[in-house]
Amino acid sequence: MGSRLRDGTGLAAHALRMRLGAGPAAPAARALGLACPFALAAAAAACGLHVLRWYAGLFASPAPWGLELQADLSGTWGVLLVSSLFVFVGAASA
Questions:
Q1: 63's torsion region: left (phi>0), alpha (psi -120 to 50) or beta?
Q2: Cβ atoms 88, 42 nearer than 8 A
Q3: 3-state secondary structure of 74
Q4: Coil, strand or helix: which one is 63?
Q5: What are the φ/ψ torsions at residue 34 (nearest 5 degrees)?
Q6: Which residue has the higher pLDDT, 38 or 63?
Q7: What DSSP designation does 62 have?
Q8: pTM score of the predicted model
Q9: Tens-digit pLDDT profile for residues 47-66
Q10: 51-60: long-range contacts (C-beta < 8 A, 24 or more apart)?
Q11: What string of DSSP letters covers 18-42?
């Protein structure tokens, strides 16, 4: 069932791209293809700096590590930190 759904959505997406004239030969598609590596590098740099600032603050804090980690990873800042870590790892591995 999953592969049939994936095939169907891929076919529909391709038909929509062809209908809108956004195929691989379109100027906008070529520009986006050229800009993709630069956007990936910018995302990796921004998220890497965010994680690095957090890590430096963890070492500079006089609080014990367990307390500091619990305070940092709770709430929305923890979600932002974990998502920045995922984006950095994904962009660096790509």
A1: beta
A2: no
A3: coil
A4: coil
A5: -75, -30
A6: 38
A7: -
A8: 0.61
A9: 999 889 888 887 777 777 66
A10: 51/81, 51/84, 51/85, 51/88, 54/81
A11: HHHT-STTSHHHHHHHHHHHHHHHH
Q: How many residues does the chain have?
A: 94
CA 65 centroid distance within chain: 27
Q: What is the CA radius of gyration of the chain?
A: 20
Long-range CB pairs of 59-64 (<8 Å, 24+ gap) are none
Phi-psi region of 23 (alpha: psi -120 to 50; beta: other; left: phi over 0): beta
Q: What is the pLDDT of residue 1?
A: 55
CA separation for the pair 5, 46 (Å, rounded): 35
CB 84, CB 50: distance < 8 Å: yes
Q: For residue 91, which amino acid is it?
A: A
